[in-house]
Amino acid sequence: MSQQNDRSPGHMLELMRSARPRQQLLGYAVGIAGTLALVAIFLPVRDDIEPLTKGFGFLVVVVAAAGLGGIGPGVVTSILSFVVFNFFFLPPYDTFQIGQPEYVVVLFVFLGLSVLISILLGRAIERAAAAEAREAELRTLQDLSRELVIRPPGAEAYREILGLVLTMFDYDAGALFVRDTAHAGGLREEVTVGSEPGEIVPEWDPRSPERPPERLPLSIGANNVGLLVLRGERDAPTPAESRILRAFGDQLALVLERDRLLRAATGAEVYRQTEHLRQTLLAAVSHDLRSPLAAIKANVTDLLDAEIRRTDEEQREVLEEIDSEAERLNALIANLLDMSRIEAGVLHAHLENVDLGDAVATSVGNIARVWPTARIRTRIEEGDVVRVDRVFLDRVMTNLLDNAVRAGNGTSSDVEVTARSTDGRVTIRVIDHGRGLPPDAREALFHPFYDLDQRNPRLGPGLGLAIAKGFVVAMDGEIWVEETPGGGATFAIAVAGSRGET
Fold first, then answer.
1. 3-class SS at 372?
2. Alpha-carbon distance 258 to 253, whole Å?
3. 228 — alpha (psi -120 to 50), left (phi > 0) or beta?
4. What are 420's strand-pairing partners?
5. With the C-alpha atoms ordered 434, 439, 442, 447, is the resulting torsion angle positive or negative?
6. Continuous H helices in 90-199
7. 338 with 398: CB under 8 angstroms?
8. Distance CA 330, CA 335 (A)
9. Residue 309 phi/psi, 5° resolution?
């Protein structure tokens, strides 16, 4: 506890501030009072004590005065003791005459020794005090530097650091201004502590009768990055405090510049990612939309060619192909619209109680029309009810089943759908026995336009799993990928469950 108190900001500031005037006064008081006390003690018995013994008594007072107040009190006490010692304790008494030659040696040896002790002891004490003050100065700067380094970028960190500076240096309020050419004067108020925003201004009129604030420019070389303004009723900073504030200002300027560069780098990275996503989107959309449009255009052109004669059955096949490609095109556009709603955060689920068995059966039927040869088995307890958005759940299950069938190349696929209720949640698993997925690719699967070629070259980039995740999250659920025992992948979703009627 004592060590913490010794390192408190108030104690360190006391060490940095000059305490010599008070200590010097104490040294003068001890020197004068101690000399007078020795006179009162030795005077009645001055004939019974040797002059050398009395001299050592006065020398102790000199050492005490020099130890407390430094050189000045020590020298003054030495001279005072020299005069008193001569006047009261060297025969003839009560005069400044020296009766014996050896007393001259004693007297001046006493004076020289006491002055020398005062000088040496005073210098040693002053150096020790200066070293202690310097240590406190460095420790204070280290504490401030640590606060600058450990705090994350942002206005809240600046506010806490500014509050710490105000506490350490006894200021009432302060404001941090950063360089911004868009504002008048080129400075923008970042944070204010101890007063209302806008109350402290970076400019100062020398003609103002008020106490001038402490204005600390924040610069990196010739580049001015901000200004720190401190306001309070305290005296002007001491040299030690000024050194700390200047060093702190230099470090704060580096932190402000670091944060500015970090924001610029983050903005550049966001722009790069956005540009990459835009290019990927254009590539994926152009590729995916071109195929059904080309098929529709080719079939319609054939139908419009009067020279080509077709039977009713051949014409129906062409129309069915056009209808299939139109459905495919409609699904692609729906995916793009759904992804834009998910990214914009405007996707809202309409939750209701849904019979899980019926919902899964509907999704299985959708897949069976696309993949007639696929084998899909379901193991769902009768009466399992989930609280979901019926449309969202159908879209998610259809997407997961389609991916599972594709993982087995669609011809001899063996897919399982299971459900299990635990603690009010129902976990639905779509299990395939395809090639599986590497662990490091499982999270990336749910990113838009992730390339699924790692799993199956036929799948290519798309939005299906990203949309599925958006739908599941909108229903307050979770989605993840597990490894299927024996090979393959298992897609699992967990949603709220409810036992009861739909």
1. coil
2. 8
3. beta
4. 427
5. negative
6. 101-150, 155-169
7. no
8. 9
9. -105, 130
Whole-angstrom distance, CA of residue 414 vs CA of residue 407: 10
Identify the CA nearest to 189 among candidates 199, 180, 176: 176
CB 492 within 8 Å of CB 479: yes
> In 3D, which of 174, 179, 169, 165 has the Cα closest to residue 220?
179
Q: Is 502 helix (H, G, I), strand (E, B) or coil?
A: coil
Six token digits for residue 365: 């039927």
Q: pLDDT by residue for the chain (502 residues), tens digit each?
A: 334 444 455 444 554 454 567 778 888 888 888 888 888 888 888 777 777 777 778 888 888 888 887 788 888 888 888 888 778 877 787 787 776 777 777 777 777 888 888 888 878 877 877 777 777 777 777 777 777 777 777 788 888 888 888 887 888 888 888 887 777 667 888 888 888 888 888 887 777 777 788 888 888 877 888 888 888 888 888 777 788 788 888 888 888 888 888 888 888 888 887 777 667 666 666 666 777 788 888 888 888 877 777 788 888 888 888 887 887 778 777 777 777 777 667 778 889 999 999 999 998 988 888 788 888 899 988 878 999 999 889 989 988 888 888 877 655 568 999 999 888 899 999 998 877 776 766 666 776 655 544 443 333 345 678 788 888 988 999 999 888 888 888 999 999 987 544 4
The secondary element (H helix, E strand) that includes residue 378 is: strand 375-379
Extract the tokens encoding 347. 């996707």
Structure-block tokens of residue 234: 């305290």
Strand partners, 376: 415
Rounded CA gap, 36 and 40, in Å? 6
Is the full-model pTM beyond 0.70? no
Measured distance CA(23)–CA(70) in Å, rounded = 8
Residues in the chain: 502
Q: How many CA atoms lie within 13 A of 342 on its CB side?
A: 23
